[in-house]
Known about the structure:
Blueprint: E1 2-6, E2 11-16, E3 23-24, E4 29-35, E5 38-43, E6 48-53, E7 60-61, E8 66-72
Antiparallel strand pairs: 1-8, 2-4, 2-7, 3-6, 4-5, 6-8
Amino acid sequence: MATAITLETGGTVWKLHVKAGDEVSAGQEVFILEVMKMEVPYEAPGAGRVKEVHIAEGDVVTEGQTAIILSSS
Length: 73
């Protein structure tokens, strides 16, 4: 089963901590979004493997956009 991490707001991708194929644990920070000069960290909702990454550092992103897709371990 796959889980999508979607953006709650628009901003700029400041730091991306994972790439496709990486294993992540629940609560692990996977990327940081910069929103109005504030850092907004996004965490993995559960353990799994990063299946797809749809963002890159420096990207300007919008609310509701899919950032990362995780597959269950």
